[in-house]
Amino acid sequence: MRGAIQTATEQLDVADTASLVGLINRAATSLGGLDAVIFAAGLLPDQTQVNADSDLLHKTMVVNALSAMVLLNEAAIYFEHQGQGQLVAIGSVAGDRGRATNYAYGAAKGALEIFMSGLRQRLHKSGVQVLLVKPGFVDTPMTVDFPKGPLWASPQRVAEDIVRAMEKGRSVIYTPWFWRWIMLVIRHIPERLFVRLRF
Ligand SMILES: NC(=O)c1ccc[n+]([C@@H]2O[C@H](COP(=O)([O-])OP(=O)(O)OC[C@H]3O[C@@H](n4cnc5c(N)ncnc54)[C@H](OP(=O)(O)O)[C@@H]3O)[C@@H](O)[C@H]2O)c1
Q1: Cα→Cα distances 95→41, 57, 174, Å
Q2: Which of 29, 77, 106, 178, CA to CA, is 20 to 30 A from 93?
Q3: By alpha-carbon position, which residue is closest to atom 44 of ligand 1?
Q4: Which of 3.20.20.140, 3.90.550.10, 3.40.50.720, 3.30.70.360 is the CATH number of 17-194?
Q5: Closest Cα to atom 17 of ligand 1
């Protein structure tokens, strides 16, 4: 919120998707209009816990995929009517291929990518831009217990990339940029080899 001229807050649990209906209109009323909606909530559970707990699997899908879809659908209705606006969702490189260590989270982010793709095509002629951001490893509270290395980025670096992509009206970005090439390689590993790998 640093540098913001006006702010408004509302506390809610996005897993309760019914609470998202009406949120866009309430935000527009509080702020005097909307130019962009960025969905940044996310839940990265330990996949070994998900493997033993179907409720956690359900919550992972709801928080990372379904809630984003509901909120962005609400925002799409608002922006379509307005004739302009920007919809932004934070996906993940994890959505590019299912890995044993995080495939519930990855499946949700992958579903979100398909949703954003369809939304972008639907809104193409309406003046509404649709951006999916695919970060790699980012040093935030979500990853506080992860060992860090050279591939890690700061939230500031990712935020700068998001702002630049919004200004340029981009559709999909990897951030930092080098993840595009890392994921290109990972997506093309043959499945017979991929199942034997652990990373
Ligand atoms: N960090 C990474 O390496 C990384 C990589 C790729 C993508 N991403 C994505 O980037 C986005 C931002 O994550 P981050 O790294 O900044 O992690 P973070 O600090 O843990 O932020 C996640 C946010 O989601 C909120 N949230 C989680 N469950 C919620 C719920 N049920 N209702 C309402 N809010 C909820 C959290 O609120 P509370 O703090 O109140 O729980 C927190 O503000 C997420 O979509 C994440 O999946 C992160």
Answers
A1: 15, 15, 12
A2: 77
A3: 42
A4: 3.40.50.720
A5: 142
Q: Which amino acid is at 25?
A: N
Distance of CA 81 to the CA centre of its chain: 24
- Tens of pLDDT, residue by residue over 4-56, are 888 999 999 999 999 999 999 999 999 999 999 999 999 999 999 999 999 99
Closest residue by Cα to residue 92 from 78, 73, 105: 105
Average pLDDT taken over every residue of the chain: 96
* Phi–psi pair at 175, nearest 5 degrees: -140, 130
Nearest protein CA to atom 24 of ligand 1, as residue: 41
- Ligand 1 center from residue 197 Cα (angstroms): 28
Q: Residue 119 Cα, ligand 1 centroid: separation in angstroms? A: 22
The CB of 137 under 6 Å from ligand 1? The reply is: yes
* HEC assignment per residue over 154-180: CHHHHHHHHHHHHHHCCCEEEECCCHH
97 close to 187: Cβ distance less than 8 angstroms: yes
Cα of 190 to ligand 1 centre, how many Å? 31
Is 174 considered catalytic here? no
